[in-house]
Amino acid sequence: MASKKKQVSAPRPPSPKVKERAAQVVQRLSRAIPDPHVELHFENPWQLLVAVILSAQSTDRMVNSVMPKLLEKWPDARALAAAPQEEVEVVIKSTGFFRNKAKAIREMSRILVERFDGQVPKTMEEMLELPGVARKTANVVLGVAYKVAAGIPVDTHAMRVSQRLGLTRHTDPVKIEAALCALFPQREWTRMGHRFVLHGRHVCTARAPRCRQCPLNEICPSAMEEPEGTWQARADAEAREMESRAEPFHRAG
Could you say which of 4, 87, 177, 214 would form a disulfide bridge with 134 (CB–CB 3.0 to 4.6 Å)? Predict the structure, then answer.
């Protein structure tokens, strides 16, 4: 429980070289993913919060397949808070770690009903009081649902991309978030976080990253192949790909 309460402390100031690379990352990823999206289906902040909790150690596609049945049975925080644990487990089983997740989304919903009139709060401090909610989850919900840039969401994809780019040497997500927040202006925190996620999920993948097509190739110390064409052409190609992927989803920024 204590770990999720960790605050983003001020990191060591980045070197001029890293600051310059970060500026180029903003330029290139802003062209490659100008209007980032969240690959989860939701209609309100509570639904997004439930979906993000369920997405831990799972895929957005799996969560999207589970959410309609869950919402059909328990359409709001009050209903889910009163739902039997065993029934919730059955519905969300395919997302993995279903016992802990069922408990978390039920308890989270109960606290929302008891303390926040069933509404998802709009501050990081209040979000972190909810079961199943750590900084990454809170950053996603605050940034996407409320346009509150409280930090940068760091998942495995954002972690991998920022490390490969040499923007941080940390392995702890909270420290990575602090390092990234120091490199990017606050107005870009939410969008840059989701750009890292999307770029890592679809281009800078864990296995067989698409370095030849990556618009960050020339500035990436981890690039394993020579780039194709100009970075602008690669960014435009990624933008077209991301736009086609974004059609069913909400925009993140």
Answer: 4
CB 106, CB 83: distance < 8 Å? yes
Token pair of 74 as six digits: 């328990």
152-181 burial, b at 16+ Cβ within 10 Å, e below that, comes to: bbbbebbbbbbebbebbebeebbbbbbbbb
Distance CA 142, CA 144 (A): 6
pLDDT (tens digit, 9 = 90+) per residue, 213-225?
999 999 999 999 9
**What pLDDT, in 10s, does the model give residues 85-112?**
999 999 999 999 999 999 999 999 999 9
∠ CA 111-115-119 to the nearest 5 degrees?
80
Residues annotated as catalytic (active site), given as ranges:
136, 155
Superfamily of chain region 45-145: Hypothetical protein; domain 2 (1.10.340.30)
For residue range 30-54, list pLDDT tens digits in order: 999 999 999 999 999 999 999 999 9
Give CATH for domain 14-37+150-251: 1.10.1670.10
Q: C-alpha distances in angstroms, 243 versus 200, 220, 229, 235, 236?
A: 16, 24, 21, 12, 10
